Amino acid sequence: MNYSFETAEKSTVKLTITFTGAEWNSAVDKAYLRTRSRYAVPGFRKGKVPKPVLENYYGKGVFFDEAVNVLYSEHYPEILEKERANFTAVGAPDLAVSEFTDEKVTFTATVPVKPEVKIGQYKGLEIKKYEYNVTDAEIKTEADKILLREAKTVDVTDRACKSGDTVNIDFAGSVDGEKFAGGSMEHYDLELGSGSFIPGFEEQVAGMKIGEEKDIVVHFPADYQADNLRDKDATFHIKLHAIKGKELPELTDEYVKKHAGCDTVADYTARVKTRLENKAKNDSRDQTENSILQAICNTCECEIPQAMIESEIDGIVNNFAQRLSYQGLQLKDYIEYMGQTMEQFRAQFAEQARSHVLTQLVIEKIIKDEKITATTEEIEAEIAKQAESVEKTVEEYKKNLDARRMEYIANDIVITKLFDFLTANNNLVA
Questions:
Q1: Which are the contacts of 402, defined by CB distance < 8 A and separation ≥ 6?
Q2: Radius of gyration, alpha carbons of the chain
């Protein structure tokens, strides 16, 4: 067997693989042994028919497809491994037989490969910096959540509903005067402030009283899962039947000792404040890093193979299905309820998938070009830090570190150094 390859269009590589006649005949023999049990010939036991008899009965090419599979499975992975420095396959090849004689058989394989991304600029950009601050009101709201553990549910009849209440409502949604699938329900229990519905819905229900009816208008997000509703205004007719509120106990030292393990309300509130400040810090960092990557991606040119996008969509859909399963739902039932086909459902994630693939390619490119690595000393320091956090010695902690975990630690260090580099080399403005 010998092969050659050349770069082709649309981020593909064209492999030309040639086998001798002897190699092809050997593959046909293997194909016969693999598949002979599928065929029957009068006068012979199934699976015991000699190869020449089967070829005569079904035709000379009866084993050709399987023979191609034999050669492909035996040699294609080997070729990819040998050419790792030249290209990386990202999907199944388009395989064809281009030449067939007694002396040789030639395959051509058009292979989708990881593309080269051309970054216009990743230094000296002016990029928005995000900063989130924690207010006293947010601290109190978060601290009061512990009171829900002993909250009593009570019927409310003497006031309008508010955030935190559970309301029983009928709703009927329409776009341009036409009702849409999944947009109507009767006697639905909705907790206001839970974020269960699209932005603006729960906020407009708040303030209604029992027996009241009204129309509210909301705007579906541009990335909404149903493409027939995406980026559109919808009108919902609401009727409110009942309100249930929560009667909370008092936040006392005794209560926080029981439920939070703190000696005083002040200690508990301080702990909540620290947690919220840490979250705000992390959110600020994450949003800023996303802003940096988006600004860099906007300068890029890259022809991403469809195979990479489809693979990313697979991951998104699988995660979506898993989240549905936590609610006792199946993906196929959800898609049917939304009035979509699987193809339509997948298509709505195409741009998100492409954006994520491009971002990963950009990250890999900058890391490679800037030669960002994790040193042995940095890895050891991170391991020591993690060991201390779980109150173990480094030696004890290392016993549970396999190669995959070590790789994760190294990658995490590299990504941290990457964003430190990008932050230092770009102009971040509030």
A1: none
A2: 31
Q: DSSP assignment, residue 36?
A: G
What DSSP character marks residue 87?
Answer: -
Tokens (6 digits) for 304 = 């991403």
How far apart, in whole angstroms, are the C-alpha atoms of residue 426 and residue 430? 13
Quick check: 43 and 56 in contact, CB under 8 A?
no
Amino acid in position 18? T
* Tokens found for residue 285: 């960092």
Q: How many Å apart are CA 421 and CA 425, to the nearest integer?
A: 6
Q: Which region, left, alpha or beta, applies to residue 113 given φ > 0 means left and ψ of -120 to 50 means alpha?
A: beta
Question: Coil, helix or strand for 361?
Answer: helix
Strands 126-128 and 427-429: parallel
pLDDT in tens, the chain (430 residues): 999 999 998 899 999 999 999 999 999 999 999 999 999 999 999 889 999 999 999 998 999 999 999 999 999 999 999 999 999 999 999 999 999 998 999 999 999 999 999 999 999 999 999 999 999 999 999 999 999 899 999 999 999 999 999 999 999 999 999 999 889 999 999 999 998 899 999 999 999 999 999 999 999 988 787 778 888 999 999 999 999 999 999 999 999 999 999 999 999 999 999 999 999 999 999 999 999 999 999 999 999 999 999 999 999 999 999 999 998 889 999 898 888 899 999 998 999 999 999 999 999 999 999 999 999 999 999 999 999 999 999 999 999 899 999 999 999 999 999 999 999 999 999 8
Ordered domains of the chain (ranges, CATH): 2-113 (3.30.70.1050), 152-247 (3.10.50.40), 276-429 (1.10.3120.10)
- Cβ contact 205:167 at 8 Å: yes
Q: 238 and 169 in contact (C-beta within 8 Å)?
A: yes
In DSSP terms, which residues pair with 406 in a beta bridge?
none
Q: What is the separation, in whole angstroms, between the first and last Cα of the chain?
A: 61
Sign of CA dihedral 419, 422, 423, 429: negative
Pairing verdict, β 152-156 and 126-128: unpaired
d(CA 228, CA 209): 32
What's the pTM? Answer: 0.76
How far is residue 231's CA from residue 173's CA, in Å, rounded to a whole number?
A: 15
Stretch (H or E) spanning 104: strand 104-112
For residue 141, what are its two tokens? 């709201």
Residues 6+ apart with CB under 8 A from 154: 244, 245, 246, 247
* HSE-up (13 A, CA, CB side) for residue 425: 13
